[in-house]
Structure formats: structure tokens, C-alpha cells
């Protein structure tokens, strides 16, 4: 009897064992890493490993419990220098056959439990990896010591706009305060 491929990323639900956990250990190849780097706008991605198991829950649900580990390199939001981040995060999903988004008067509302997903004919573990990695990455990575200082951008011969110029109501508040002070003096 042949052993199942535990590194497959696209699993057909009908072929999963119905009564015992399906264990997986995925270390994407260079092509898959390149696709993730492009999708997530990273500079590099190393040591990516996604391992865990899928367990049947009744006849119409599968629970995924896994660990995602990776080393990602992103550009610093201030200097664009490479910023390396180590990610080690648990991942859990519940795939339900009768999944339905809650609807409120014609609008779709996000459910409170964001780990629940619809169960189709396949479970795409690469999609789970992509989403989990995207959520775990820092939104605004900064290189050590990088700080945003005042920057003046204007065409030659033009006075650059300041923060005070961008707040026109601040000058109205100052004018009101002066008028209020003048009224108090009289």
C-alpha cells in the first residue's frame, strides 16, 4: 500500500481519511516561494514550513490545526532597507460544508469567527499558507533606527506646504480665540 503524499497542497476532500487525522508537512518549492514573494510584495522568503493536520468533524466538516513558520524580508516603510521578520504562528480553520455568510438586510456581514470557511471538493493548503502569512507579516516594517523626519517636497522656487498649511481650520481657531480675547477685554 502506498503512503499518501503529505506535502501536497491541494487536497481532494473525498480522498481524505474519514476517521483519522491527515497529517501534512509542506515546504514549498522555489516556484511556489517565488509566487508568494510576488503576491505578498516581499523581498525574500526563506525557511517556509507549514505542518499540522486535518481532522474530520462529523460528515460535513474538517478542522485544520497547523503551525506556520517562515523568515520574510520586507522593505522598510521609511528607508526601503530590507527588514527581516521571523514568523512562527499557529493556524486553525474549520471547513464547513453548510457554511453561509450572515446577511443583514441585503448586506453581507463578516462573521465573528474568521477561522470558519466553506468546504468545497478540495482544500487548498497553499491558499491557507498565503492568507496566514499575509496576516502575520508586519504592516509597517521598520529597519532599526529608521525614523520619519520632516520632508519638504516642492518644485524649485515654491514654498513647501507645512503641516499647519494642511490644517486650514487651525488658523480659524486661532482667529476665533483672538476675537474672543478682544471681546473679553472690552
Q: Can you tell me the residue ranges where pLDDT is under 50 for at least 5 consecutive residues?
A: none
N-to-C series of helices and strands: EEHEEEEEEEHH
Q: Give the biggest beta sheet.
A: 5 strands, mixed
* Strand residue percentage: 25-35%
Q: Within the largest sheet, what's the order of strands?
A: 2-3-4-5-8
Number of strands: 9
**Cα end-to-end separation:** 100 Å
Whole-angstrom Rg? 26 Å
Q: Can you give the mean pLDDT?
A: 83
Which structural class do you get from the secondary structure elements?
Answer: alpha+beta
**What is the helix content?**
10-25%
What general outline do the C-alpha atoms trace?
elongated
Q: How many helices does DSSP assign?
A: 3
Q: Tags for this entry?
A:
single chain, 186 residues, alpha+beta, five-stranded mixed β-sheet, two-stranded antiparallel sheet, 3 helices, 9 strands, 22% helix, 33% strand
Structural features, described:
With 186 residues, this protein is of the alpha+beta class. The chain has a domain at 10-136. It is 22% helix and 33% strand. It has a five-stranded mixed sheet, covered by helices on one side. A two-stranded antiparallel ribbon has the order 1-9. It has a two-stranded antiparallel sheet with strand order 6-7. A hairpin with a 6-residue loop joins strand 4 (61-75) and strand 5 (82-96). The longest helix is centred in the C-terminal third of the chain and has 18 residues, at 168-185. The model has no long low-confidence stretch (mean pLDDT 83). This is DUF177 domain-containing protein.
Amino acid at each position: 500500500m502506498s503512503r499518501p503524499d503529505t506535502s501536497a497542497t491541494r487536497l481532494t476532500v473525498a480522498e481524505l481519511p474519514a476517521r483519522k487525522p491527515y497529517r501534512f508537512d509542506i515546504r514549498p518549492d522555489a516556484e511556489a516561494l517565488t509566487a508568494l514573494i510576488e503576491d505578498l510584495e516581499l523581498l525574500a522568503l526563506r525557511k517556509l514550513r507549514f505542518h499540522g493536520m486535518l481532522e474530520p468533524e462529523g460528515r460535513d466538516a474538517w478542522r485544520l490545526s497547523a503551525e506556520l513558520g517562515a523568515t520574510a524580508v520586507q522593505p522598510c516603510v521609511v528607508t526601503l532597507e530590507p527588514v527581516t521578520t521571523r514568523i512562527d504562528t499557529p493556524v486553525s480553520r474549520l471547513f464547513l460544508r453548510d457554511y453561509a455568510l450572515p446577511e443583514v438586510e441585503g448586506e453581507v456581514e463578516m462573521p465573528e469567527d474568521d477561522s470558519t470557511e466553506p468546504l468545497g471538493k478540495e482544500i487548498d493548503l497553499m491558499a491557507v499558507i498565503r492568507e496566514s502569512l499575509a496576516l502575520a507579516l508586519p504592516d509597517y516594517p521598520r529597519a532599526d533606527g529608521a525614523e520619519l523626519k520632516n520632508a519638504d517636497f516642492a518644485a524649485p522656487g515654491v514654498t513647501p506646504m507645512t503641516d499647519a498649511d494642511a490644517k486650514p481650520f487651525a488658523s480659524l481657531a486661532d482667529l476665533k480665540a483672538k476675537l474672543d480675547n478682544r471681546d473679553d477685554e472690552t
